[in-house]
Write a structure and sequence with these properties.
It contains 5 helices and 12 strands. By secondary structure, it is an alpha+beta fold. The strands form 2 sheets. It has a 6-stranded antiparallel barrel. A 6-stranded antiparallel barrel has the order 7-8-11-10-9-12.
């Protein structure tokens, strides 16, 4: 008998936003458009603000997903409140156009919005992150914030900046983020592998 592995991958290109209907320590319910719900089944993976969750129930206008303790610890999902807006993305398929970057939906930690300013028609956002996360963030590299594939403008030992084009600003939940707000951060998987290899070679 031959077998195969199912790899769930996202691209960081947000296709829909939803509204939190309820959230607890064990699950979250999201109200969303009917066309999006039609694509879901029990067991379907979906990225909610960048965290890969599994659909356990759905109706015509909403779906519910369980939240593991590790997800509560690593992400900002526990800080969500009813009526908050979240970014949603379905997993990529073999025929998907990879217009973002490889996003696993495995959130590494959270960052805090320290500053926001307009530059032309774009917005420049500055975030602080723990040093353990900052090590994997490189200038002009890729990063996923609340599931959105973005390019790092500048990186330091304690944070980074990204630029948001008008389309992304309007079509995602980023425009609702306030100073001091937390975001889910997933650093580039390639940077994490390189960091691990370097560590192993130095032992």
């Amino acid at each position: 008998m031959t077998g195969f592995f199912v790899v769930r991958m996202f691209t960081g290109i947000i296709t829909e936003t939803g509204t939190v209907a309820s959230v607890s320590r064990s699950n979250i319910a999201i109200r969303v458009s009917t066309p999006f719900v039609r694509k879901l089944r029990r067991g379907t993976s979906v990225a909610v603000d960048g965290a890969c969750l599994t659909v356990v129930a759905k109706d015509a206008r909403s779906f519910t997903a369980d939240i593991m303790p590790e997800t509560q610890k690593r992400t900002a999902l526990g800080a969500l409140r009813r009526h908050d807006t979240v970014n949603l993305e379905l997993p990529a398929t073999p025929s998907s156009f990879l217009s973002g970057h490889i996003v696993q939906g495995h959130v590494d930690g959270t960052g805090v919005l320290e500053k926001i300013r307009k530059e032309g028609t774009s917005h420049i956002l500055s975030f602080s992150v723990p040093r353990s996360l900052a090590r994997s963030v490189i200038e002009k590299g890729s990063i996923a914030l609340n599931g959105i594939s973005l390019t790092v403008i500048n990186a330091s030992v304690s944070g980074f900046t990204v630029g948001i084009i008008p389309h992304t600003w309007k079509t995602t939940a980023l425009h609702k983020l306030k100073r001091g707000g937390r975001v889910n951060v997933e650093t580039d998987i390639l940077a994490k592998y390189v960091e691990k290899i370097i560590k192993q070679r130095s032992l």
